[in-house]
Amino acid sequence: MNARLLRSSAFRLALVYMLLFSTSVLILLGFIYWSTSAYMTDQTDATIEAEIAGLAERYDLDGLPGLLATINERVSRRPGGLSVYLLVTSAYKPLAGNLDRWPDVDENEAGWLDFLLGGGGEEAGETHRARARTFRLRGGFRLLVGRDIHDLEDTRRTILRVLIWGLLVTVILAAAGGAMISRGTIRRLETINATSREIIGGDLSRRIPTRGTGDDFDMLAGNLNAMLGQIQTLMDDVARVSDNISHDLRTPLARLRNNLQDLLAVPPDNADWRVQVEQALAEADGILSTFNALMRIARVESSVRRGNFTELDLAGLVTDVVELYEPLCEDKGQHLEVETDPGSRVRGDRDLLFQAIANLLDNAIKYTPSGGCIEVGLIGDKHGARLVVSDNGPGIPDAERAMVFRRFYRCEQSRTTAGNGLGLSLVAAVAKIHGVDLSLEDNRPGLRVACLFRNGD
């Protein structure tokens, strides 16, 4: 048993259980020994009491001659038996029985005494323990009736040896079982540690293996694997965002630099000077807008606190967003239809939900052609509410629907449209912290975005 096993918490826990189990077994075996010994002693005492009662009755009926005859008959019938008899005078002179003298021991208040009985053994000088009770007869006679409890003592010793060996075997088996259990636990923990070291070394694709048993370790491994998957996804997102930032911002930054460089060659009083300044400012505003959008998404994704959530009138919130974007729809010649359930209420952050719904409606307006139709519907029930924003624009291909929630991702047909590819990323982040199920569906033609709010989430 190596030192690592002895230091392991699993072995220490197994040792505690072994001690508790061994103590329980010791108490149980001790009770068995005590109850068995007490039962055998009670049986012996009951036999002695019965013999005394019989002899006392014979003395009352036939007097001293009848008692002497009965004792001598019992002794002669079973000379090597377990019964012990001795009838003496008031001066302790033996009259009958298989003892040559009165035992030199004190009896207790009930008349019981324990003494050593010599002879009768296989070895010279062997003595046995005997238990007897004394009885006073009329005329000053004293009667002692007892039993050789050698067999009882042997039985007690046998039971005690069995109990000791049983306890010893229990301790050995418990220790062996604890060691085996500890080794199994250590092996599984070492598997987790080895995988963790590989992940720390940079291999984020590694996962903790499971055995399919559904035990505590499998549940722990499953949770850790889910956490590792989420971490890997976040790391991939960070790498992808970095790539997208460098790719999508390189062009506007280059244009901004060129505009500023051109300004150096143009006199301030030149008519083109103001135009180039305005272009530079527009480029700077676009870049700032992109970074602000990234910061909003980061703040939303890092916000795990729901203490500021309040109960909201979702129908009123949707109405406010629609009223804000309705003039934009009219300018583009689009038709906006709204149908809300006034009883729809949810818990959440009003500002974040307002921004998310505004992004959905802004996307619908941006990609719906002039004369197109945009529909906003809200249906509520006791389980929650379902918000749907539909348009009849170009829609999103099935293969790209899972990717449009990534930062900076833009479909091929939308690259000619102004934007930075962050609108749906913010919607996804807000939906996640609110526990909203977000799905993209085909509106035939166009896109339908469904948001399912669940009560209690």
Describe this protein's structure:
With 457 residues, this protein is α+β, with helices and mostly antiparallel strands. It has 8 helices and 12 strands. It has helices at 3-7, 9-77, 150-200, 216-264, 271-302, 314-331, 350-367, 423-433; strands at residues 83-88, 94-97, 112-118, 127-136, 142-148, 310-313, 335-340, 345-348, 373-381, 384-391, 437-442, 447-454. Strand 3 (112-118) and strand 4 form a beta hairpin. Helix 2 packs antiparallel against helix 3 (150-200), helix 4 runs antiparallel to helix 5 (271-302) and helix 7 (350-367) runs antiparallel to helix 8 (423-433). The two termini are 51 Å apart. The model is unreliable at 120-124 (pLDDT under 50).
Topology at a glance:
Elements: H1 3-7, H2 9-77, E1 83-88, E2 94-97, E3 112-118, E4 127-136, E5 142-148, H3 150-200, H4 216-264, H5 271-302, E6 310-313, H6 314-331, E7 335-340, E8 345-348, H7 350-367, E9 373-381, E10 384-391, H8 423-433, E11 437-442, E12 447-454
Parallel strand pairs: 7-9
Antiparallel strand pairs: 1-2, 1-5, 3-4, 4-5, 6-8, 9-10, 10-12, 11-12
Helix pairs in contact: 2-3, 4-5, 5-8, 6-7, 7-8
- Report the total helices: 8
Task: Specify Rg, calculated over alpha carbons.
Answer: 49 Å
Estimate percent helicity: 55-70%
**How do the strands of the widest beta sheet line up side by side?**
2-1-5-4-3
Global morphology: rod-shaped
- Following the backbone from N to C, one meets helices and strands in this order, namely HHEEEEEHHHEHEEHEEHEE
Keywords:
457 residues; alpha+beta; five-stranded antiparallel β-sheet; 12 strands
